[in-house]
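User: I've been trying to design a sequence by hand for this structure and keep getting stuck. Would you show me what you'd pick, starting by listing the structure so we're on the same page?

Assistant: Good idea, let's start from the same input. This is the structure you sent:
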C-alpha cells in the first residue's frame, strides 16, 4: 500500500485499456503521471438535509449541513429528533443503527446510550483495515501518555496457514491505567477481528484483560492478544 497525502488528482485520461492520472502535490507546481487499470473516486459524504424545509419548523443546520441535537437526539424543535448521517459523528450504518436503538429506548422511558468512543470503522479493501478508538496522532495532540503493542500476522500460525501474512495489529493503551484507547488492524478479516476490540473498549477493558482471555489456537484473533500483551512488554511470540 502506498499513500500519497496532500496530493490531488488534476486530470484523468483514458489511454487504450489503461487510465492515466495526473497528480500534483498541494503547494507544488510540478505534477506526476500515474497509470492504473481502475480508479475509485471517493470524495467523502455529506448530510442529506437539503430540501427538507427544516427552517419551517425552526431547525437550523451547522456549517456542514448537519442538524444539531442534544444528548438525547432532540433538535431545536422539541418534538423532532434526528439520528444517523444528518447529525455529527462518523457516517456509518452501524453508528446510525445504534443511535436509532438508543433513541427508541429513551422514548420508551428506558436508558439508551451510544458509546461514541468505541465506534469501529472498516475499510473493505484487500487486505482489510479496521480501527476503533484513538489514533497515535490524536493521543499526541491531546497530550495523553500512551503505550503501544503490536503483532505482525507474519508471526501468526493461522495467518501463515491461510497465506494471509500481510499486516498486523496495534493496540494503544493509557500509560498509567493500561486501559485500551485504540486498536488498529490491517490484514485478513480485520473487519471481524475489530469486534473483540470494540467490546473491550465498550466495557473499559485494559490490555491485560484482553491478554488474560483465552484465545483459540490457531486463530487470527491471537494477534490481538499478542498485541495487548506487547502493550505492557509481555509479548509471548515476538
Amino acid at each position: 500500500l502506498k499513500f500519497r497525502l496532500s496530493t490531488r488528482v488534476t486530470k484523468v485520461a483514458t489511454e487504450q485499456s489503461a487510465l492515466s492520472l495526473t497528480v500534483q502535490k498541494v503547494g507544488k507546481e510540478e505534477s506526476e503521471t500515474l497509470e492504473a487499470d481502475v480508479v475509485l473516486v471517493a470524495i467523502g459524504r455529506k448530510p442529506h438535509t437539503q430540501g427538507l424545509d427544516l427552517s419551517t419548523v425552526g431547525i437550523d443546520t451547522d456549517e456542514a449541513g448537519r442538524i444539531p441535537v442534544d444528548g438525547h437526539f432532540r433538535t431545536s424543535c422539541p418534538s423532532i429528533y434526528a439520528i444517523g448521517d444528518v447529525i455529527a459523528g462518523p457516517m456509518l450504518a452501524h453508528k446510525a443503527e445504534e443511535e436509532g436503538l438508543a433513541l427508541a429506548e429513551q422514548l420508551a422511558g428506558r436508558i439508551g446510550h451510544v458509546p461514541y468512543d468505541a465506534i469501529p470503522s472498516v475499510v473493505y479493501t484487500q487486505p482489510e483495515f479496521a480501527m476503533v478508538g484513538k489514533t497515535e496522532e490524536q493521543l499526541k495532540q491531546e497530550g495523553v501518555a500512551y503505550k503501544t503493542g503490536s503483532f505482525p500476522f507474519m508471526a501468526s500460525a493461522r495467518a501463515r496457514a491461510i497465506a494471509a501474512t500481510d499486516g498486523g495489529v496495534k493496540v494503544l493503551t493509557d500509560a498509567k491505567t493500561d486501559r485500551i484507547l485504540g486498536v488498529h488492524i490491517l490484514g485478513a478479516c480485520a473487519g471481524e477481528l475489530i469486534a473483540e476490540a470494540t467490546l473491550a473498549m465498550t466495557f473499559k477493558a485494559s490490555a491485560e484483560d484482553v491478554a488474560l482471555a483465552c484465545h483459540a489456537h490457531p486463530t487470527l484473533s491471537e494477534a490481538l492478544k499478542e498485541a495487548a500483551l506487547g502493550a505492557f512488554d509481555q509479548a509471548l511470540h515476538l
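That's my pick for every position. To get oriented when you compare it with your attempt: The first helix runs from residue 93 to 107. The chain has three domains: 9-36, 54-114, 121-231.
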